Amino acid sequence: MADSPVSPLHIVRTQSLASLVADELERMILSGEIPPGTRLNEQALAARLGVSRGPVREAVRGLDRSGLVVTVVNQGSFVRQLSAEEAMDVYDLRVALTGYACERLAGRATPEQLGTLEDMVQGMESAADSDDAARYYALNLDFHSALMSMGGSSRAVRLYDDLGKELTLFRRRALVAPENMRESNAEHAAILHALAAGDAAAARMAGEAHIRGGKRRFATSTPPAGTEPAGKKRPGKAAARGEEEHVQDRDAPGEPTR
Amino acid sequence: MADSPVSPLHIVRTQSLASLVADELERMILSGEIPPGTRLNEQALAARLGVSRGPVREAVRGLDRSGLVVTVVNQGSFVRQLSAEEAMDVYDLRVALTGYACERLAGRATPEQLGTLEDMVQGMESAADSDDAARYYALNLDFHSALMSMGGSSRAVRLYDDLGKELTLFRRRALVAPENMRESNAEHAAILHALAAGDAAAARMAGEAHIRGGKRRFATSTPPAGTEPAGKKRPGKAAARGEEEHVQDRDAPGEPTR
DNA sequence: ATTCTGCAAACTGTTTACAGAGGACATTTT
DNA sequence: AAAATGTCCTCTGTAAACAGTTTGCAGAAT
Question: Where are the transmembrane segments (chains A, B) (predicted)?
């Protein structure tokens, strides 16, 4: 009846603590607040989030399955570290996914869908003109999400997003240089053009070329070091006191088991 | 020193109970022992596996993340039910992945790798000749795994396998009709031929065509009913007594939230 | 006869408690 | 002085207990 179905008593338990913890943990990891290689101290995390260790363990187990976290028995869970090669492999998978979505969409894109994409490309152009990297970044995410959603399936969208999260483990932030924005958006336009023309082969090529371009743009603008130095510091006993500390990094195993 | 490195005290804790439970649960689900739509009763599962509810919850949470299980707050976790459309989408994703792996492999396949694949195709041919569906099935899995591993990355292999597990949720078992074996293996040979020729485009086409063929062979040999009837039985109270019962199905929500 | 209400059992979500493993530091030994 | 070793302490892994919710059934009221 009421407009807002809020229970008068306590807030309705609409989702479990474990899922909330999982979301928060994922956010912390993807934002870099907890850098790769860091050990996830269950007790500290539980205390910081105001829950017990149970939900934290469940959340970490979920992140482990989805690839953001690596667990070593009796040693704990660590934020996954992606090697440069693995990151490139992930890019390649996104190439394949994007190409496929574009190819499928070419044959059946509705004028409405094309209009939506067109608007996004326009928006990115204006963002590039005003050097608004943040806005370009957001629109770019939307564009690719829309592409996957229209051409692929919901499963494809989730896959693409998950791969993106893994990439975020490698590159701290999407480095969008001003000149890259224009180049990138030109490729967007090429995709759109092929889609509008209904040319499946061209759309696929354009989609693949775009992600490959992103991979290249990233690879050329990143430090040439093959593997990250990672945290080598050993905090000793003091850090374990945990007064304000919520995470503690030990030796930081890169990829112990997989 | 000894041949079998078994600890004299208790068996070495080489992996956690939660991971063991997760493996066992996955096996149960994929084998059909716990059919889609079934609710996973934590207490019953814990009792059956001889552990407490903690590891079971962690395992279920992991399966939820990997897509085999769907969880509803305060109602429990259910084995996921794939609709026919979703299954087709998963097939399409495998088409894309396989095509991509084949394309990449074409340029750089070593004679050794080609020999390995050749042996598998030969093995499948002999299996088809003797109508040994089980052996064909196993070799087929190996062939595709090898293809992904050689042409793609370890990430691609895992992705492909995970998608395969999801498909298993839909089709109880890979139905390999005798005539299908020959058709399927002819496509394998075509892939191999293109790979040996180093023709990337042809390899991709052949790889894609093969999975599409598998999709078609499955779609034509499956009941035309769009959605599965699923378990509609309401077991009442008797089943909940749990003397030998380890699972209990209630209303079986297909895809409550995603 | 049907529907609604109230009670009870079961199950999920969460917290708390306990045992074993691993690591860091101090001491001892060579 | 350097290496080895012993001890303590933290943290993970697991189990058990506790609170809240949902579900099913029985009985009452219409």
Answer: none
Q: List the domains of chain B with CATH numbers.
A: 17-81+230-241 (1.10.10.10), 84-220 (1.20.120.530)
pLDDT digits (tens, 9 = 90+) for A86-120: 999 999 999 999 999 999 999 899 999 999 999 99
- CA angle B45/B51/B53 to nearest 5° reads 65
Q: Is the CB of B52 under 7 A from strand D?
A: yes
Which chain A residues contact residue B92 at CB under 8 A? Answer: 100, 104, 152-153
What tens digit of pLDDT does each residue of B156-195 get? 999 999 999 999 998 876 566 778 899 999 999 999 999 9
**Residues B75, B237: Cα–Cα separation, whole Å:** 17
Residue A243 has pLDDT above 50, yes or no: no
Measured between beta carbons, which residues in chain A are less than 8 angstroms from residue B152? 89, 92-93
What's the residue count for chain A? 258
Alpha-carbon gap, residue A129 to A179, rounded angstroms: 10
The region, left, alpha or beta by phi > 0 then psi within -120 to 50, assigned to residue A74 is left
| Rounded CA separation B182/B127 (Å) | 10
